[in-house]
Specification:
The complex is a heterodimer of chains A (115) and B (112).
Chain A (H helix, E strand, L loop, with lengths): L3 E4 L2 E5 L4 E7 L6 E7 L6 E7 L4 E4 L2 E6 L4 E6 L8 E7 L11 E2 L3 E6 L1
Parallel strand pairs in A: 2-11
Antiparallel strand pairs in A: 1-3, 3-8, 4-5, 4-9, 6-7, 7-8, 9-10, 9-11
Chain B lengths: L3 E4 L2 E4 L5 E7 L5 E7 L5 E9 L2 E4 L6 E3 L9 E3 L8 E8 L7 E2 L3 E5 L1
Parallel strand pairs in B: 2-11
Antiparallel strand pairs in B: 1-3, 3-8, 4-5, 4-9, 5-6, 7-8, 9-10, 9-11
């Protein structure tokens, strides 16, 4: 099955700096890669996702890049703010051709933005 | 909040008892999922259902059971066979097999 590794497990940045989280996946058939943000005690919420037919996607201060050859994808947060502090999860799934939209999650990255 | 509700928010049970967690969605989504989250860890898939009256095991199905008798409901039963049931349980749904998954608020289960 799919295996997703996420690094780093914790990340501390100064407000205004950039944060980068990296994930690798094992199944070359995976074609959908969402990123979720989870604040303490709350539900995960999708912040951005990318499908395998594109290499990069941006939404304001957030961007995701995908390298299918190397089987890794990254989340980039620019101009970090204290409200960006949370746990971020990457995930991968095989999409329509797979047996259901089975998301395999990485272990999470706890991001702390220091004011 | 995405139209997915889970109840209760906190649940306490004694070891050896079965317990059922509720998950309801009004999004008209076909697919529904149950995940388990342990402290400091990612989400692991327990069961998922792509359509009414059909469901499949996820990565950690042992000790759990589900049913999908209605499109909007996907209850999870944690049986006494589950060795370490204390965890945060999250339900999710998606429009179809390839769509974004929306999560419910979660149920924190404590078994002593």
């Amino acid at each position: 099955g799919e295996n997703v590794e996420q690094h780093p497990s914790t990340l501390s940045v100064q407000e205004g700096d950039s944060a980068v989280i990296k994930c690798t996946y094992s199944d070359s058939a995976s074609n959908y890669f969402p990123w979720y943000k989870q604040e303490l005690g709350k539900r995960p919420q999708l912040i951005i996702d990318i499908r395998s037919n594109v290499g990069e996607k941006k939404d304001q201060r957030i961007a995701v890049t995908l390298n299918k050859t190397a089987k890794h994808f990254s989340l980039h947060i620019t101009e970090t703010q204290p409200e960006d502090s949370a746990v971020y999860f990457c995930a991968a799934s095989g999409g329509i051709k797979a047996a259901g939209n089975k998301l395999t999650f990485g272990g999470g990255t706890r991001v702390l933005v220091k004011p | 909040d995405g139209g997915i509700t889970q109840s209760p928010k906190y649940l306490f049970r004694k070891e050896g008892q079965n317990v059922t967690l509720s998950c309801e969605q009004n999004l008209n989504h076909d697919a529904m999922y149950w995940y388990r989250q342990d402290p400091g860890q990612g989400l692991r898939l327990i069961y998922y259902s792509q359509i009414v009256n059909d469901f499949q095991k996820g990565d950690i199905a042992e000790g759990y059971s589900v049913s999908r008798e209605k499109k909007e409901s996907f209850p999870l039963t944690v049986t006494s066979a589950q060795k370490n049931p204390t965890a945060f349980y999250l339900c999710a749904s998606s429009k179809d097999r390839a769509g974004e998954q929306y999560f419910g608020p979660g149920t924190r289960l404590t078994v002593t």
